[in-house]
């Protein structure tokens, strides 16, 4: 069974630009969560989608947004990029998104903002 | 203050040593406690999962949760060079939805 895939794996952008990251969950998984990982802050929860609805949101500014499609694939968008947005963005999928369900992580998208 | 505190290390031990990794937390609503292992250039993978207080053992790994002290631990026995990775503790409550809070991660190096 294929794992979680994320595209692209690496991105370089400049300040002020916007970026869209994509995540394809494991087949049959309906919950997708997004995380930002930086050396200073560790792994921080961005948001979680289940059946195309955002159920939970972390403490990030409105420049960070996401959506989920009917096939459970998810995209994350960051507008007006700032230097501090440079990070590894990880997506994780889960069967039902309930506590106790294991999350499976993708390899991440490494975003560098210049 | 962060909800979950974890010493980032790095922690360097000789092969065969017993490794102790720890996290403290402040939110008493946390009920689910997890340990993830993350190798370089990879996403985290779930190692251990515990509900509420108590111990759980899986091979060389033992997870402990002390809710009264808001303290969780992961012990690795007979550590191997292949255990060299970053270990992240994570926890969540059961208020619905799926929001997991992670520690900063501890980098572990096991020397052959």
Order of helices and strands of chain A: EEEEEEEEEEE
- Our Rg estimate of chain B from Cα atoms comes to 14 Å
Q: What structural class should be given to the helix and strand makeup of chain B?
A: mainly beta
- Count up the helices of chain A: 0
Number of strands of chain B: 11
Average residue-wise pLDDT of chain B = 91
**Biggest sheet statistics of chain A:** 7 strands, mixed
Largest sheet of chain B: 6 strands, mixed
Write the layout of secondary structure elements.
The complex is a heterodimer of chains A (114) and B (112).
Chain A: E1 5-7, E2 10-13, E3 19-24, E4 31-38, E5 42-50, E6 53-57, E7 64-68, E8 74-78, E9 87-94, E10 104-105, E11 109-113
Parallel strand pairs in A: 2-11
Antiparallel strand pairs in A: 1-3, 3-8, 4-5, 4-9, 5-6, 7-8, 9-10, 9-11
Chain B: E1 4-6, E2 11-14, E3 19-25, E4 32-38, E5 45-51, E6 54-58, E7 61-66, E8 71-76, E9 85-92, E10 101-102, E11 106-111
Parallel strand pairs in B: 2-11
Antiparallel strand pairs in B: 1-3, 3-8, 4-5, 4-9, 6-7, 7-8, 9-10, 9-11
